[in-house]
Design brief:
Layout: H1 2-12, H2 17-39, H3 53-68, H4 77-87, H5 90-96, H6 99-102
Helix pairs in contact: 1-2, 1-3, 3-4
Length: about 120
Amino acid sequence: VGDLYMDVVKFVWNPNWEAEQAKIFEEKYNPRLKNLNAYAAGKKHILGDNLNLVDFALFQTLYLLQKIDSKALDAYPNLQTLYNNFAEIPQVKAYHATDKFKNRSVYVPTAPFKFPSA
């Protein structure tokens, strides 16, 4: 999860992100997502039935990936399930409904990649 997140950070700060997006997804994201998707099969959360700190990091990473490409998780149903399970936690769902969440910057505004608004 940490390696995938760092790949996202590198992408966001890459001044050539548009030209390299397909290559980065193919070489970096997709292999990592494929492995995580296989590992997540049948799990409610990434390490099993109980929520763990890793779930927070994974959710944030998957959230950013979907902001980069809305179809980023289409081929990874187990990761979609984990993402949705986390998003349905009452406190997370309530926070995502607030103006504070909706109006915040998704990432550092000075990064070359500009995320669409929440």
